[in-house]
Amino acid sequence: MVGIFHMLNTKKYDYLVVGAGPYGAVFAHEAAKQGKRVLVIEKREHIGGNMYTHVEHGVTVHDYGAHIFHTDNKEIWQYIQQFAEFNGFQNQVIANYKGELYNLPFNMNTFYEMWGTKTPAEAQAKIAEQREEALGSLGNRAPSNLEEQAISLIGTDIYQKLVKGYTEKQWGRKATDLPAFIIKRLPVRFEFNNNYFNHRYQGIPIGGYTPIFEQLLDHPRIDVQLKTDFFANKEEYLAEFPRIIYTGMIDQFFDYQFGELSYRSLTFEKEVMHVDNYQGNAVMNYTDAETPYTRVMEWKHFDGASDDGVSVITREYPQAWDRTKEAYYPVNDETNMAKYKQYAQLAQQMQDQVVFGGRLGQYRYYDMDQVFHAALNLVRQEFGIPKDYQFVE
Ligand SMILES: Cc1cc2nc3c(=O)[nH]c(=O)nc-3n(C[C@H](O)[C@H](O)[C@H](O)COP(=O)(O)OP(=O)(O)OC[C@H]3O[C@@H](n4cnc5c(N)ncnc54)[C@H](O)[C@@H]3O)c2cc1C
Fold it and tell me: Is 185 a catalytic residue?
């Protein structure tokens, strides 16, 4: 009877989109262009999902951690350019280990700072020596935990100073208690190249990501309701909407009936510093185990702007997830993936009405370009649009 009083689909929407993050917003935008009426509901107070940014003290702050757009996919790069001009930012991270500074990702600069090696041959020899030592101590057996795995890939020095503490903070567990598979590879570059991402197209939208979402969702056939949780009226939404694009947690959708999937959570601590330049770089990783945060972002170095005499920084702290916290990273180990498969089967049974999309709906880590790509693929599928169709006019 409750449904009669709610009448959530009074405008006869074709679609309900749950979540105004990139997956939901791109879908809503393209569906509206196809002539469909879309209601977007979002439980937070703002659109944009984890890409949300705001401006304070003249600088763009990323509320959910540093978001750098990077891709090799030209279509996606052109797609997002429709909504923003990008500044060409390249991430060049500095690691701070108890006051010693190193360039990341591991490259010739890092090796020089660590060992004083000056040529690729010297650095390769040093790494080979360190690896051999580590493999020798393992005997013939395969690495049985993350520590052994990392040491066998990169040797002790880099592991101890740049991998161990950071990884332990990220996972909230000792490296010797973490499974080896978490680190499959530790990419090293024998070039003096601090560019964190290898991708051809990189940058940050001038003015932040939020204006992109304002444009995506500004359409006469799209309505957006903020501070609206799908679970407040799940049964009514399901009864009244013929088609639902759901980007929330898949385990929650099914009442955690196979148990919770595991996630890692984060907290962000923002502070306005009364200095022009706090750390001289956009991102500084704290790779020791004692500093409680993993990284500090200084926002003016991302977009080159800020009021005089102030700089806004954010410290990022990893934390365990529970239902009261935001789920950021899926823990895609065997146990969780087996559980996820059970949920995915239930999702498949509902596929005529509900599509589970995005990082929480599909329980996988997506970079932004991948989530844009996935949303456009859904659009193609949903509206029978040919694979080679160009979304950019
Ligand atoms: C710390 C951090 C740093 C990152 N850095 C980068 C980076 O540098 N580069 C990069 O490419 N990617 C980065 N990412 C990944 C990027 O954030 C994701 O690719 C992207 O946000 C995923 O989009 P989505 O739409 O799937 O999910 P989200 O952005 O999470 O959006 C989902 C939305 O659904 C809403 N929602 C959930 N449940 C409900 C409900 N029950 N009712 C109503 N609304 C609901 C949520 O509130 C949220 O707004 C980073 C992620 C994190 C956590």
Answer: yes
